[in-house]
Specification:
Length: about 210
């Protein structure tokens, strides 16, 4: 997880950077808003930490401007004034100085999860379309009623883009470790998928290996 810390106070910036790195984050630092703007132009961050008041301006105004332009990265404000109402419409969290580093780390980790759970892209192969975020599937515009296992197996096959997928990989994706690769549960799901997908056939058997979509 990559974090940008914008703080003009050398001691605070060093302490925050060191603590976040020790907690396993990749950290970039900036001392003012122009430097932060340059970093944000070049890189994508899972969380951005702003000191609220900087010599180059109010970070709240900067974030507000970027939000209006469609910027969505989670923001944590560090502030010496306990007034979250003003900042929260544009930031996602705040900490009042002085603060404990374990709390800062916990807040940053929580905000990073907001980007980690972004919905995956829609998958398409021929006339087949799968939306993993909504867990919906259609073929030639026709909605498919799939079980969780059926959807997971089909998702893995479509994501492979026509390449062969091993039986073991399909089983690992849809079942826990208690289901051994020799089990016939995958074959049952494949049979059901073929019936629901209809003609022409989509799921092909690769003998001695697994399956593929074409």
């Amino acid at each position: 997880m990559r974090v940008l810390v914008t703080e003009d106070d050398d001691d605070t910036r060093f302490a925050v950077e060191t603590s976040l790195r020790a907690a396993g984050f990749a950290v970039d630092v900036a001392t003012d808003l122009p430097a932060a703007d340059e970093a944000l132009f070049v890189n994508t961050y899972d969380c951005v930490v702003f000191d609220r008041v900087l010599p180059s301006g109010d970070a709240l105004h900067y974030v507000k401007h970027r939000r209006q332009a469609g910027w969505t990265a989670p923001v944590l404000f560090l502030t010496g004034i306990d007034n979250p109402v003003e900042g929260l419409p544009y930031g996602d969290d705040y900490l009042v100085k002085p603060f404990a580093m374990p709390e800062l780390i916990a807040r940053v980790r929580s905000l990073c999860r907001l980007t980690a759970v972004a919905p995956p892209p829609v998958l398409r192969l021929g006339d087949l379309e799968l939306d993993p975020g909504r867990r919906t599937a259609t073929r030639a515009g026709r909605a498919l009623s799939l079980t969780v296992k059926e959807f997971t197996v089909l998702e893995r096959l479509v994501a492979a883009g026509g390449q062969q997928v091993r039986r073991d990989d399909l089983i690992a994706a849809a079942w826990d470790a208690e289901v051994r690769p020799s089990s016939n549960v995958l074959d049952v799901v494949i049979t059901a998928l073929r019936q629901k997908l209809g003609p022409p056939p989509v799921v092909q058997t690769v003998r001695g290996f697994g399956y593929r979509c074409a």
